Amino acid sequence: MCHPPTYLNKILLGSKQGQLQLWNIRTSKLVFTFDGWKSRVNVTEPAPAVDVVAIALANGKIILHNIRYNQVVMEFIHDWGMVTSLTFRMDGVPIMITGSAKGNLVMWDLEEKKVKSQIQSAHFSSIAGLQCLMSEPLMVTNSQDNSLKMWIFDMPDGGARLLKKREGHALPPNLVRYCEPTGENILAAGRDSSLHIMNTVTETFNKSMGRASK
């Protein structure tokens, strides 16, 4: 579901059957039904361009569709796991970013209509949400691995690097111990094979010691 900008009181709904419907939530009336592409709609996200919505399908296709004229603007194929989230850079750069169930991030060049760069295993689990910040080369991602990460687009290839992160255990901890005499730091090991040091005074000193290989 999404609310296309400039479409007053209207929302666009995707379905398992592949159809999309535009509804007026003020009058509770169906405005228009889009036939779709015979594949479940996973994500809908308005593009910076007016009337254009990005639609990620279960079959791996990503469609940029003009909902005013009911026309496909462009189409991509995603080969890095099912798309679970999608966003656009909001600082004037024509880049679309997709997150996948495998934890990967892919940056798409909308002018060249191709992959610009990618970050494999940006998260240890499925990416639940993506959001680029308005007028900034920054993006925030969150995941089922219980982490929140901020990325900055300053790489030579147009890609992003990790700027900040906050994370905890993705699964319940199975060992928690004070690890020094002052009682300020706690060592916690989790079922997700990760080890964390958590400060009882301020979270600024919290650290992830990494994750054991399986």
UniProtKB/TrEMBL annotation:
Signal peptide: none annotated. GO terms for cellular component: Pwp2p-containing subcomplex of 90S preribosome; small-subunit processome. Transmembrane segments: none annotated. It holds the Pfam family Beta-prop_WDR36-Utp21_1st. InterPro entries: WD40/YVTN_repeat-like_dom_sf (IPR015943), WD40_repeat_dom_sf (IPR036322), WD40_rpt (IPR001680), WDR36-Utp21_N (IPR059157). One of its GO terms (biological process) is rRNA processing. This is WD-repeat protein. Residues 1-154 form the WDR36/Utp21 N-terminal domain. It comes from Pararge aegeria.
